[in-house]
Amino acid sequence: MQQLKVCELFAGVGGFRLGLEDTGNYRVVWSNQWEPSTKMQHASLVYEARFGAENHSNQNIEEVPTSAIPDHDILVGGFPCQDYSVATTLKNSKGLIGKKGVLWWSIHRIISEKKTPPKYLFFENVDRLLKSPSTQRGRDFAVMLKSLDELGYAVEWRVINAAEYGMPQRRRRVFFLGYHKSSSAYKAMAKSSPEAWMTSEGTIAQAFPVFKEKGALCSFELSDDLVSISESFNKTGGLSPFLNTGSCINGKVSTLKTKASQTMPATTLSDILENGSADESLFIPEEELPKWTYLKGAKKEIRRTKAGFEYNYSEGSMVFPDALDQPSRTIITGEGGKSPSRFKHVVQTRKGLRRLSPVELERLNMFPDNHTQLAGISDTKRAFFMGNALVIGVVRGIGEALFRKIKELEK
Ligand SMILES: C[S@@+](CC[C@H](N)C(=O)[O-])C[C@H]1O[C@@H](n2cnc3c(N)ncnc32)[C@H](O)[C@@H]1O
């Protein structure tokens, strides 16, 4: 079977591309990355420096005409998590649904306008997506599943914590795959039982094995139209119906709770530390230690709002310094820079306490060393990229399993 042609949206510094092309079975034919509200397009510059400028677009995806995007087999991306409510009635409003600036609708537009829509979709997002917004838990994901159903896709999803499969970072993200009606994977999914697909026969289960946790499989139909789903889904409140594993085919959602079943040796924070002496700027100066200790510590105190109202504030302590014998905590976009913080990683070394280097942050996402190194790009920016990116081992694993599945089914 030939390599699958990939279109990479919201490409950042290329996490999907690295993971998929690593397998040898995928080739990116077009990519797009644009950072709103900044003149310097740092992530796009890194992307072009690593992969070349050809077939890369640095334009707001909302303004890219679908005709500029070549045909592809699989559309991938980690899109920003936003409010997906549908603002307009859909009747007679072909192409324009949802609010401007909501990037899901750019993905939707590309799929719906392509004469030959991609057979496969592969997206990543924060796991909060399954539960948002807080006033109508699960509505956003329901809108997404329904719109994909209308476009002819079946979907399977799973929340995966990379560290549970031997990767160096505890990063919990929802990954979902879409199979177009015209694909053999869609037909295979339609034949299988939802539970079997989610726990053993599906692509994600084959990439990252799980077992079903106690509790019944929950099923329901997304039978209303998009506007009604947007307006009324889970209006009465309560928990999101979407559990950490699920599928949706022909508008029928099936979801259950699963747990990683494979115990793999952990990759720990100490495994990814750079050998040799670290840059001086990473070390925490003696005089700043009290501030770090305070921020990382447990607190119970009275605070005051700007308007002068007093309130009780409490939070637990963070492990400080970070445990070296475990996978790291999640990298966030504010990981870089010298200022003391509750969330930045701090490790104890022979020379003293220090923050992580840009290369160490890249290793936590399994990127190649110095992938984001480029003249004019600060360490803080490099940390920001990694906070936005993903653990590429997860993409590689799902990519391999998908290719294997397609090959088997098409034999
Ligand atoms: C969650 S990050 C994805 C990071 C990527 N997976 C990686 O490995 O680096 C989302 C990306 O979407 C980009 N983005 C936000 N709005 C955009 C728009 N309107 N058009 C194109 N890209 C956009 C952001 O700049 C950011 O790099």
From TrEMBL:
Keywords: Methyltransferase, Restriction system, S-adenosyl-L-methionine, Transferase. Its EC number is 2.1.1.37. Pfam families: DNA_methylase (PF00145). The active site is at 81. GO terms for molecular function: DNA (cytosine-5-)-methyltransferase activity. InterPro entries: C5-MTase, C5_DNA_meth_AS, C5_MeTfrase, SAM-dependent_MTases_sf. It is an enzyme of class 2 (transferase). One of its GO terms (biological process) is methylation. Belongs to the class I-like SAM-binding methyltransferase superfamily. C5-methyltransferase family. PANTHER family: TRNA (CYTOSINE(38)-C(5))-METHYLTRANSFERASE. This is Cytosine-specific methyltransferase. It comes from Flagellimonas spongiicola.
